[in-house]
Amino acid sequence: MLILNCPCCGVDAEESELAAGGEAHLKRYGPGSSEDDFHDYLFMRENPKGVHFERWRHANGCGKWFHAARCTQTLEVFGTYSAQVYEPPQEIKDAITAKRPGWTWRDFS
Amino acid sequence: MSEPISALNHASYDGGIARVEECGLQGMITLRGDLSDKVLAKAVKDATGQKVPNQRKALVNGDTGVCWMSTDELLVLVPYAEVEAKLAAMTNALSGVHALAVNVSDARAVFRISGASAREVLGKLAPVELSAEAFQPGQIRRSRLAQVAGAFWMDDADSFRVVCFRSAADYVFNLLKVAAQPGSEVGVY
């Protein structure tokens, strides 16, 4: 069972209160972009065994979106943070580095 | 004008480990905007006499009060008969700021669970830590009740008020009745 702390309302929300929103930090390639970029934006997703960044929504709660950093292998949660950022904040990166030295995920490490 | 009637018209359930009743009509205004805004705070104060609550707090006195719903949303409770007047005053007061107030009274149903085992009744239905240390009068929690969304706060140490969508009122009442059946105390709190 996954329990995430919602950074918007501060509740430790159980998985059934949340809605998964897929991979985090996608950059949208819309009209005017190349077909390859658009294809990658639409279809290419990370599927790591280990550190992963996801979007979640506190659907049965405050209704807000947020980001979560967690490990897909152990279900360990490294932290949650605001949805209004382009990349994980430094303290989240530090928390991951403390437990998974040398981790990388897309362009982040 | 036809006479307004609440979803279950004061249906109640006795004889279980807690009393469950539908509270009848309750005026409710959803207010969205910047909660730190002084104009918004004054509109809330004028409507309810309460200040803007902090995160997950509910300042409720009877059928008047204000609850924190999310970082940009409040639930304003007023007597049903006054909701139109209060909403008009609020809309007028908020005309200059980026905020929205809507009357949602008829979209909701309100229940009261009272009795020594009220915590257990709700604890069976919502994935929420409801021990006396974790949840106290003055707090509000939006969560789910089995399969539907619901919010609840405590009026005193032994009673909860539960708000859900009116369309789910019958479902929630049945849920609460089952969770409150005689002999179903768990004794965990």
Short account of what is shown:
The complex is a heterodimer of chains A (109) and B (189). Chain A has two helices and six strands.
Task: Summarize the SSE layout with pairings.
The complex is a heterodimer of chains A (109) and B (189).
Chain A: E1 3-5, E2 12-14, E3 19-23, H1 35-43, E4 51-57, E5 65-71, E6 77-82, H2 90-99
Antiparallel strand pairs in A: 1-2, 3-4, 4-5, 5-6
Chain B: E1 12-13, E2 19-22, E3 27-33, H1 38-48, E4 58-61, E5 64-70, E6 73-78, H2 83-93, E7 99-103, E8 108-114, H3 118-123, E9 140-145, E10 148-156, E11 159-165, H4 169-179
Antiparallel strand pairs in B: 1-2, 2-8, 3-6, 3-7, 4-5, 5-6, 8-11, 9-10, 10-11
Question: Could you walk me through the main structural features you see in this protein, from its secondary elements to its overall organization?
Answer:
The complex is a heterodimer of chains A (109) and B (189). Chain A has 109 residues and is α+β, with helices and mostly antiparallel strands. Chain A has one domain (3-99): Folate-binding superfamily (Folate-binding fold, 2-Layer Sandwich). Chain A has helices spanning 35-43, 90-99; strands spanning 3-5, 12-14, 19-23, 51-57, 65-71, 77-82. Chain A is globular, with a radius of gyration of 14 Å. The mean pLDDT of chain A is 95. Chain B has 189 residues and is of the alpha+beta class. Chain B has 2 domains: 12-24 and 107-179, Gyrase A, domain 2 (2-Layer Sandwich), CATH 3.30.1360; 27-106, Alpha-Beta Plaits (2-Layer Sandwich). Chain B has helices spanning 38-48, 83-93, 118-123, 169-179, and strands spanning 12-13, 19-22, 27-33, 58-61, 64-70, 73-78, 99-103, 108-114, 140-145, 148-156, 159-165. In chain B, strands 1-2-8-11-10-9 form a 6-stranded antiparallel β-sheet. Chain B has a 5-stranded antiparallel β-sheet with strand order 4-5-6-3-7, with helices on one face. In chain B, a hairpin with a 2-residue loop joins strand 4 (58-61) and strand 5. The radius of gyration of chain B is 17 Å and the shape is globular. The mean pLDDT of chain B is 95. Classes of the chains: A alpha+beta (109), B alpha+beta (189).
